[in-house]
Each structure stands twice: as structure tokens, then as C-alpha cells.
Please model this.
Amino acid sequence: MAIIRNWKSGDDEAIFELFDRTARWLSNESYTTKFDDKGLTPEGIVLAEEDGLIVGHVMGTRTEIMCEGRPTIFGGIGQVMVDENYRGQGIGKAILQKIIQYHTEGRCRGILLWTQDNRIPAYPIYEKFGFRIAARRAFYRFRISESKSPLSVEPYTEKFTEQTEAIRQEWMRSSFPVGIKSMRPSSTNWHVILKDRQPVGYVNIGKQDDIPFLSRAVALLSSASDVCETLLAHLRKLGHEEAIWQTCVGSVWEEELHKRGFRDGELETDVRMCLSIGSPVNIDNQRPEFDGCSTW
Model:
């Protein structure tokens, strides 16, 4: 019978052995710095111990998420794993119950996690606990036709910090789930979209297989259509004939791509799920945002 308990000093070596026996998403070095995250405490790490081994692990962080137009404390669940030799004994359910209780007692508005809807047995367990999908990632790969550029595009520099922060704040107020500190642009790969020399949006433009890869686009909602058109024209002007746009199902950017005839998006198995604590979180009336928060 597994003992369910919290992390204590000296557990890390046994946890690293569990990582080696199951799935490794973090390096040992990264794990040892876990408490650099101020939202994580020893009470937020739940372990299952049996036969002198750590056979189950889950991490529960707390962070501020913009929800229903205001900053709100949410719990996060991550690094969920159970030793294959001990599955089917209710260990996964037990450690999840413990971490949900921890977040509930901490008066969190809800709990967020990342998973894949084809991950067995984790996904069905999350559904049984009442988690529902808040955001699903989608990728659109398409050929770029000639188009007009109503706005202009420049590499991001610190001179745009104050203006892009105002845009980010507006974007967050109607998006979910978005961390209070997330989606801030930096110098690498970030570009600003300008109207009359004033920023109205920004985006990360990287590359995948030598094809421009757009992600984490943020804009004033009144300018979203022009921002989309400008980005496509900008890439075409640079000589690119194809592009990939990472977004969410039901997002503003998916709507804009659909308007332009790009409807063959590839839906990913990656999903953000949310469990409400107390009154239901109004997921349906907030714009989905996948890359807006981290749950470890």
C-alpha cells in the first residue's frame, strides 16, 4: 500500500530514479532549482512511496492568471508520473486528489494543467476529476499569396516596451489562460507591428524547416485583421512562399486565417485543461490562449 506524502529534504535522488524509470521532462539540474519558483513549496509536491521507492509524483504550483478580466490565483499541476510497475493501484488518483485538495484549501480560483488528449490513462482521469479543455493548440501551414501591407513591421527593441506592455494588458483582459507575467516580447525573434509609427501588435517569428514560424501573436483587437494581413505581406516581401502559424482553436488568429481561406489547420493533441473551484470559470466567453501560462 503506497504512502501518500509531501516532499521533504533528501527526496530528490529517489525522485530522479523515478524519472529514469518513467518519463523524463526535466533534467536533474532543473528539478533541483524548483523552489526558485516562488509559487512552489514542499507542500506543493506530492509523492507516493512504496517498497522503499518513490513510485508517484505530482507538482502543484500557484500563480496569478488573468481570468474574467482580473488577476486571479490559480493552481497548476505538472510533472505527473507513476511508475509503470505500480500502475492500476489508484496511485495516480490518490496523488491528484491530494494536490487538488492542496489548491482548494489555498483558495485558488481553479486549477490548470497541460496534457494530451490521447495520453492514456492520464487524460480520462483528468476528465473524471472534472477538468475540461480550456485551449487546444493548432498549427496552420499555408502558401502566402500577394497581399497589401496596411501597417509596417520592425524588429522589437526596448524602446517599444511601454507600448507593447499596454497592448499585452488589453489582450490579457479577454484571454484565458494567460499568466500575469507571460507573453512579454524580448529581442530574439520578436517583431512589432506599427501603425503610424505606433505599435498595435507584436509576434514571435522563428523558423521551422526554414519556413517562417509565427507564434504568440498579440494585438489590439481593433487592429487584429490589419496585423494579420501585414504579417503575411511582410513575409511575402522577404521572399517566403510558405508560413506556419501556431495558434489556438477558436482564437482571433484562427478566425483571421479562416477569413483568408486557410482552413486546413492541424489540430494538436496538446490541450490546456481547467478545473473550477467553487463557481465555474467562464471559459466559453474568454478567448483561448495556449502559450500564456506555465504549469511546470
In short: Residues 91-105 form the longest helix (15 residues). Residues 35 and 261 are 47 Å apart (CA to CA). The mean pLDDT is 93. The first strand starts at residue 3 and ends at 6.
